[in-house]
Amino acid sequence: MASKDSSGRAHRLVAQRLEALERAGVTHVPKARRRASAAPPPAEPPVAHEMPTASRAPAVVSSGAVAATNDRVAALAVIQREVAACTQCSELASTRTQTVFGVGNPAARLCFLGEAPGADEDRQGEPFVGRAGQLLTRIIEACGFRRQEVYILNVLKCRPPGNRTPLPHEVHNCRGFLNRQLAVIRPEFICCVGSVAAQTLLETDVTIGRLRGKIHQYQGIPVVCTYHPAYLLRNPAAKKDTWDDMKMLLRQMGIEPPGAEGK
């Protein structure tokens, strides 16, 4: 017999999915075949202690057209083809396995912006799939979302050789693609992970340590900056700071952070 916790988790996932469909303009949902089993919960929390996921009431799907999401998918596909053919940065174009565009809900309410692909991302063609990506996924899940419900992208679409820091001209060459992606997705909130993402989006040289803990703005969109998951893997004590940033982000989104009830 299912426990109250597992039942509550199922209700939360349904509510989150309905909210994503509502933002995409879906008016009805066809009956789906029963899945054999649900995905297992994350093996460990992204922060120093386990945080229960905050519950939210199911959303009612409003009127709209699926065509709105289809238009975003089509627009992103155009940009993705341009990215795949890009050779502006000769070194990156000659050393990459493939470009890494972005992944997630094209009508996402929240975007996570990182620095650049690593070796795993270059091989698989998807951002944040290595160890740092697995930690980011656990952070997303601890906030009450699924990876598919947000949109994840990087400043650079090609892996810098040896995972070095992106050079200024590389950031400049990719900036147009980034701007266009965000213009198509039109997120309500952006979370920058790491100094390169934060400094690029906000056009500043302020350190990530001074940028985090505050709400910034990008073209009217609230932006939260926090440490890169790769940094957290090297400095586990900083996970608490990142969780504080996530709680601030959730409150900006009108969501009570997990574990905050009654406090």
Question: Describe it for me?
Answer:
The protein is of the alpha/beta class. The protein has a domain at 72-252: Uracil-DNA glycosylase-like domain (Uracil-DNA Glycosylase, subunit E, 3-Layer(aba) Sandwich), CATH 3.40.470. It is built from ten helices and six strands. A six-stranded mixed sheet has the order 1-3-2-4-6-5, with helices on both faces. Helix 2 runs antiparallel to helix 6 (168-185). The longest helix is centred in the first third of the chain and has 21 residues, at 4-24. The radius of gyration is 18 Å and the shape is globular. The two termini are 31 Å apart. The relative contact order is 0.15.
Supply database-style keywords.
263 residues; 6-stranded mixed sheet; globular
- Helix percentage: 40-55%
Q: What's the count of strands?
A: 6
Structural class designation: alpha/beta
The SSE string, one letter per element, is HHHEEHHEHEHHEEHH
State Rg.
Answer: 18 Å
**Count of helical regions:** 10
Main pleated sheet: 6 strands, mixed
How is this structure best summarized?
It contains 10 helices and 6 strands. The chain is an alpha/beta fold and 263 residues long.
Layout of SSEs?
Elements: H1 4-24, H2 67-85, H3 90-95, E1 103-104, E2 110-114, H4 119-124, H5 131-142, E3 151-154, H6 168-185, E4 189-193, H7 195-202, H8 208-211, E5 215-218, E6 221-226, H9 229-234, H10 239-252
Parallel strand pairs: 2-3, 2-4, 4-6
Antiparallel strand pairs: 1-3, 5-6
